[in-house]
Amino acid sequence: MQTKMWKVDKNVDNLITYPQITKAADLLKRNEVVALPTETVYGLGGNAQSDEAVSKIFSAKGRPADNPLIIHIAHEQQLEDFIKDIPAKAKTLMERFWPGPLTLILEKKEGVLSELATAGLSTVGVRMPDHPVALALIEASGLPIAAPSANLSGRPSPTTAEHVRSDLDGRVSGILDGGPTGVGVESTVVDCTEEFPVILRPGGITEEQLQEAIGQIRTDPALSDPQKAPKAPGMKYRHYAPNAPLFLVDGSVEQIQSLIGGKQAEGKKVGVLTTVENEARYQADVIISCGRRDALATVAEALYDTLRAFNESSVDIIFGEVFPESGVGTAIMNRLSKASGSPIIMMK
Q: Ranges for the YrdC-like domain (predicted)?
């Protein structure tokens, strides 16, 4: 399969009729799959009402079929087609955070969406992305769009079109290049089907922001207990992993440096994931700073690009610093823990 790639200026007027948008929308209408930019990461979009299109998404990514997909819409009226009802707290969250990096789990109508997209569940995750190219493409297609991250399953999520091409060239019909994404980590997922909404996945909207909007909110026990099965899309399996094993270390620069030195003594090429504040304090084969510790939003924005950069360096092992689990730091640590797949090394 030849993958078409189109550059789109997100600032042009009337994006819905932009030639590249209409070409990509035509592919979606024919049940092909197209990668598109959002404010979080690039998504791999397909017609959420078509088993054929959804099957192509799973096939292109190599994603397990029991992993439900998030449905993307361009306006709230689309919800009337496939959502049973919208609880009051869900409406409040939509008013406050849509368009934006927030996915809401709602009860679905039967027989509208592909059962493959929802993994046969009675609920569906839905969001409205805050990116003009994504919104224009959804509007031009006239479809609800199922769109997981546009990467091979398990690899770091893509924050540029080049990341998508590196993973999926020849596996998808098209890629819309709308420039680098902004938030850098996926949307927050909130289950709104219970009396008190539950955070199933931390992301670009923080727990503190959600509490301010609707009051009491709970978190999925699986976020802190690895023995419990997670409910959120994309959280059941190991994700975001670089090629080399990543170990997170809760310790000082000096303690992390001792681990680096030990592996170098074994002849290993060692990488360290750090921040601007600490990068000059390490001696390692590859040192990559991932934003600033005093501005965690910059860490979130650069996280996946940093994990992919280690693949280019051919390191044998990576040691990574940990971050405070509050605000967007919760999402950062969630993604790093998934990328590592190993317990944090406690040195304090």
A: 18-205
In this structure, how many other beta carbons lie within 10 angstroms of the beta carbon of residue 109? 14
What are the CA-CA distances from residue 2 to residues 153, 172, 218 (Å)?
A: 21, 8, 45
Q: Which residues are annotated as a binding site for ATP?
A: 63, 67, 123, 149, 157, 201, 240
Q: List the 317-321 sheet strands across, edge first.
A: 286-289, 270-274, 317-321, 246-250, 345-346
Phi, psi at residue 72, to the nearest 5°? -105, 135
- Give the tens place of pLDDT for each residue, 273-300: 999 999 999 999 999 999 999 999 999 9
58-102, pLDDT tens digit by residue? 999 998 888 899 999 999 999 999 999 999 999 999 999 999 999
- What the block records as the tokens of 198 is 């539950």
CATH topology classification for 246-346: Rossmann fold (3.40.50)
- Report whether CATH 3.10.20.880 matches the domain 4-223: no
Which pLDDT belongs to residue 222?
Answer: 77
Domain layout of the chain by residue ranges: 4-223, 246-346
Give yes or no for residue 118 having a pLDDT over 70. Answer: yes
291 secondary structure, DSSP code? S
Helix (H, G, I), strand (E, B) or coil at 62: coil
Q: What is the pLDDT of residue 66?
A: 80
Which residues are known binding-site members for L-threonine? 40, 72, 127, 147, 187
**Terminal Cα-to-Cα distance of the chain (whole angstroms):** 52
